[in-house]
Here is the input.
Amino acid sequence: MITTIRPTRSRDARAEARMRLARGLGLLGLTAGAISLFQTVGHIADPAYLIPRLDDGSQHVQYHMARESLVSVAAFTVILLGLFTGPAARTAQLWRTLLAAVLGYVAAMWSGIAAAGTAAPNIMALTVHMVSSAGLLCATFVARPGFRAAAR
Here is the structure.
């Protein structure tokens, strides 16, 4: 029986092609997510989001928007680091870190369903949430073989 082994360069080329696709999908997801992030940041100083009789203070909702914005920036940073790291640094642990950042960000984006009974306040926001979630989740799983290859 004759066994052939594919050259490493071919496997590496496929892994890099998948990473390019993953980066594109990730950037699409992050760009859509940035639209949502900028909306949230804009609400921080919006007096319409003050709740005068709130026991925790009238600006408590705005505090949560500021906190959400900063956590989102941190998630974006981890996602970018995961997708744009070089082949030598693509470990299984880094992929799991990327997955955790993506799942946390996406779960937070859809948390309105449980908290307020709606996924988004309007169709534009819903579209942004869907594009961001799909782009980031697809990017993470398209990239996975590139992280496995580096771990070998």
About this structure: The chain has a mean pLDDT of 88. The first helix runs from residue 8 to 44. Residues 58 and 123 are 29 Å apart (CA to CA). Helices lie at 8-44, 60-84, 92-109, 112-116, 123-151.
